[in-house]
């Protein structure tokens, strides 16, 4: 349930994440009437500025391409509920000052109830001090308090555990909402329905007897875009694979939960992740983009060290050692500066028994997460007419053709709304993080050079499909169709 009398505090309000994602999402919810009654939004950051300047900055990324007067009016209303406080992240007096500001808003509420949602759009170095000071100085005694945190949750198993235990000293698990924004994407949410509301897709064919292999790919057509400093510390595995793609994999492969409650869903996700052994170096291909197609290479980014061996591309094979999935390779691939923008799941079915048909394509179920959400099943059908030849065709549910008038919410909108309602289903539980890091920590330590010299990623030109070794890497797994590469 949405609680009236809620203040949303955005820490890091002048940063990139807040401007590009948090505020447009808050506005989207506001515009569609999904924020609580009497909501207020308080931005907080170090930068000194007045409310006007803050309102200008935070609405700069809100889109109104056709100058729709209704949206323009909503933007003006939205500005009126937004105020700003500047202060440091590591000192109590700044947070006491914020607390005073919150009280001055709440004293005008019609009842004494005062709920607070704190959103940390911040670099990891200040997660702990901000969470601690917020609890000490800004915790409401008159309502519900919740805190949203964003990745990165550490850099490996140990640092994640350390971070989580520091945060837990001030915030309880049920008050904490760890965002992995892929869990807010429409198609990722659809996985539960596709799998568990369909016998044909879920119960009957969703296992090693029918599925030959699964590929989950993330392709971005741009490089680090000025985020090189952050990126170089983390690399593509920590940035995308270990969180976003692994989350998708866990929902795709988990057993049917007892119910759709957040705990039941997350119990099943943890169970399947626990069946995945840590990745070894034989199971990974690393790449780094170089200049190509008139675009600069990774090392040309001024914020990246000139001798960096940080991977901007990785492909890896995961195995799930349980009865359902034993022997099926799960290929996870993610890369920046590739030839297209695409995130999709491709489940390739086994060959039909040879004999009657020769050389026909395998069935494939493709779930395109973005762009242009779609689910389609590739199958073989008889060529119409006198011949008895099979031809490959598709049963296609492309959202923009089927749902012409439906607005699909942005991932951040969906997740902020869930947090306001107190629904944890699409947030990451502490034990999920623990198992996810266990799978990736050994390989990350190898990449970081803890076990000898750092491995050199294979170069690939900006705008290409990835390193040239990709095809042979995939072929090793016995794939026939390379469409998804
Ligand atoms: C973020 C990564 O978590 O996800 C970025 O840090 C990446 O590097 C982004 O670009 C991708 O998100 P989306 O929603 O654009 O697919």
UniProtKB/TrEMBL annotation:
Regarding protein family, the annotation reads: Belongs to the glucose-6-phosphate dehydrogenase family.
Q: What does this protein do?
A: Catalyzes the rate-limiting step of the oxidative pentose-phosphate pathway, which represents a route for the dissimilation of carbohydrates besides glycolysis. The main function of this enzyme is to provide reducing power (NADPH) and pentose phosphates for fatty acid and nucleic acid synthesis.
- Identification of the protein by name: Glucose-6-phosphate 1-dehydrogenase
Instruction: Name its species.
Output: Rhizopogon vesiculosus
